[in-house]
């Protein structure tokens, strides 16, 4: 009887494993169809599925903690779930560590005195922010970050929201301040429709300039209160962050609280488009440039007032128009 009971148990375990494998296979096929994925050969698909399954475990384990109230954000199997984190950062990062730039020629944001800031800000609701864009397989996040802030400041000045070109800056990494120096030097920036975001030789046409930049203002390094004042009164601000973790790659919703990320190793440029509070946790509303299929429709809520977590206030600036 004991042997028979053991055999029955083993059979049930086997059936359960078969069902799990079948469910994963079905999910894999559904995920591929949803995101339009196709691979060059059988070997590549086997590798990508293996990575996908590994990421699925990460997502499930983390979300189980979120369900228990032990995590303030959730992960998801987004369009990048078939990539190792190292591959993903090579594909989407800045091309390396964001290096400090001489900012002696820039203006420095002066702390505001006697100004009551709103408890929450979302510049999307005021018309300052264009739809989420996708930098593709190019380390040009810095140009999207810089352009996003310029779009907001141009709107503040003219009342006209324009989607500005992110071309002409390069795919090998850079700094938002360098983008503003470039725009100032050449005399302005074109519309995205006039100078689309495609790989190839630079083809800037000064006759098509629609927005200009006279310089830029830097926020005191590491000062989240100053950054809050700038975001709360000026508009969206270009910021640099550490986005190197698996949890950032697979982020889906909630307030991203990741104490292990660095406040000095900055590898990604994004746009601080507001701030607020959710579930008792303060956050920065951050617009990314990985397309609307990543995160919360292209956005992430990053922890605010937590010792400059992920370096969001380490290197931030906005243009003067």
UniProtKB/TrEMBL annotation:
Residues 117-320 form the Peptidase C1A papain C-terminal domain. Residues 1-25 form the signal peptide. CDD domains: Peptidase_C1A. InterPro entries: Papain-like_cys_pep_sf, Pept_asp_AS, Pept_cys_AS, Pept_his_AS, Peptidase_C1A, Peptidase_C1A_C, Peptidase_C1A_papain-like, Prot_inhib_I29. Keywords: Disulfide bond, Hydrolase, Protease, Signal, Thiol protease, Zymogen. Residues 28-88 form the Cathepsin propeptide inhibitor domain. GO terms for molecular function: cysteine-type peptidase activity. GO terms for biological process: proteolysis. Belongs to the peptidase C1 family. This is Cathepsin L. It comes from Eptatretus burgeri (Inshore hagfish). The lineage of its organism: Eukaryota, Metazoa, Chordata, Craniata, Vertebrata.
């Amino acid at each position: 009887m004991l042997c028979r009971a053991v055999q029955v148990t083993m059979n049930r375990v086997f059936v359960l494993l078969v069902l799990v494998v079948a469910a994963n296979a079905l999910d894999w096929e559904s995920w591929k169809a949803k995101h339009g994925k196709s691979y060059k050969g059988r070997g590549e698909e086997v590798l990508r599925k293996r990575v996908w399954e590994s990421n699925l475990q990460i997502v499930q384990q983390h979300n189980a903690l979120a369900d228990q109230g032990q995590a303030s954000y959730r992960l998801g199997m987004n369009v990048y779930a078939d990539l190792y984190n190292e591959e993903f950062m090579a594909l989407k990062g800045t091309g390396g560590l964001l290096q400090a730039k001489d900012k002696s020629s820039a203006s420095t944001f002066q702390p505001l005195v006697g100004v009551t800031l709103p408890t929450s800000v979302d510049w999307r609701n005021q018309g300052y922010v264009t739809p989420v864009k996708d930098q593709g397989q190019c380390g040009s996040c810095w140009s999207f970050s810089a352009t996003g802030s310029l779009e907001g400041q141009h709107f503040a000045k003219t009342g006209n929201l324009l989607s500005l070109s992110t071309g002409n800056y390069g795919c090998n990494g850079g700094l938002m301040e360098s983008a503003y120096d470039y725009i100032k030097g050449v005399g302005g920036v074109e519309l995205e429709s006039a100078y689309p975001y495609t790989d190839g030789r630079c083809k800037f046409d000064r006759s098509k300039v629609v927005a200009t930049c006279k310089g830029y203002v830097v926020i005191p390094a590491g000062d989240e209160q100053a950054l809050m004042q700038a975001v709360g009164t000026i508009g969206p601000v270009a910021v640099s962050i550490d986005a190197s973790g698996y949890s950032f790659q697979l982020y889906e919703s909630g307030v991203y609280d990741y104490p292990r990320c660095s406040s000095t190793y900055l590898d990604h440029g994004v746009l601080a488009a507001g701030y607020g509070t959710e579930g008792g946790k303060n956050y920065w509303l951050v617009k990314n440039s990985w397309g609307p299929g990543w995160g919360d429709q292209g956005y992430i809520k990053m922890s605010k007032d937590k010792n400059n977590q992920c370096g969001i206030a380490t290197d931030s600036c906005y243009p003067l128009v």
